[in-house]
């Protein structure tokens, strides 16, 4: 499993409960049906600028399995997916930073994919649910790579002020020039399943070695380190919220747009100015 860091000297019961619940659900589903497969994948974006090519990659972890245990009748989904990862950031220097968030774009909903859907939507399986495990095993064995079209990209944004999440602006993937200036465009986006390190004979009864998940975004967005309550205030989330009524890009953002699950965040103690807008 991934490392889960807790605040120094503070035991966050909420995050611990989430971790235990996640572990319990995973074990339950794995023990009552086809065991899930663990995949590691890299998402890469290249942006062309007058100053040169800018490239960023981020690595995420997926746990995917068919919902065929004795609890299958309680869910309407045939497949369950767990995701550990973060948004991608392309630093364009003085032009700003392009963020490719985890969630899909609400204005391109018919084509845009969430990052957690990449593994199965970009490498779709053929056949029935019973063939999913074999399909995932094949992805792990062959570690394929595919192009991600601009239409398929998740929600792209920028911040006028990195310290203030309410300054977020939606970016059209086909028109980066409108936000970052002449000559700026997406040159390439790519998604690949990474090769899992092979086990030596003495590791046969151990889980595969973990591939490090990218953890860089909090260095650029320090407000992501706030406790949940303070972060909700910073994001100005309404108490009662409906995506159907959302009109602004900020209505579609949360901590999960940048880091998922919440237990991956490095939470720090709140200071008096943390909730100021």
**Percent of residues in helices:** 10-25%
Distance between the termini: 36 Å
Average pLDDT taken over every residue: 83
Query: Strand-residue fraction?
Result: 15-25%
The structural class is alpha+beta
The total domain count is 1
Instruction: Round the Cα radius of gyration to an integer and report it.
Output: 20 Å
Low-confidence stretches: 1-11
Query: How is the main sheet built?
Result: 6 strands, antiparallel
Helix and strand pattern: HEEEEEHHEEEHEHE
Biggest sheet: strand arrangement: 6-9-1-2-3-10
Number of helices: 5
For the secondary structure, the number of strands is 10
Characterize the overall form.
globular
Describe it for me?
The model is unreliable at 1-11 (pLDDT under 50). The protein is 16% helix and 24% strand. It is α+β, with helices and mostly antiparallel strands and 277 residues long. The radius of gyration is 20 Å and the shape is globular. The chain has 5 helices and 10 strands. The chain has helices at residues 13-31, 118-121, 132-142, 177-180, 228-234, and strands at 37-49, 52-66, 79-86, 88-91, 97-100, 145-147, 156-159, 168-171, 185-193, 259-260. It has one domain (13-264). The strands form 2 sheets. It has a 6-stranded antiparallel sheet. A 4-stranded antiparallel sheet has the order 4-5-7-8, with no helix packed on it.
Based on the model shown, name its key terms.
alpha+beta, 6-stranded antiparallel β-sheet, 5 helices, 16% helix
SSE topology sketch:
Elements: H1 13-31, E1 37-49, E2 52-66, E3 79-86, E4 88-91, E5 97-100, H2 118-121, H3 132-142, E6 145-147, E7 156-159, E8 168-171, H4 177-180, E9 185-193, H5 228-234, E10 259-260
Antiparallel strand pairs: 1-2, 1-9, 2-3, 3-10, 4-5, 5-7, 6-9, 7-8
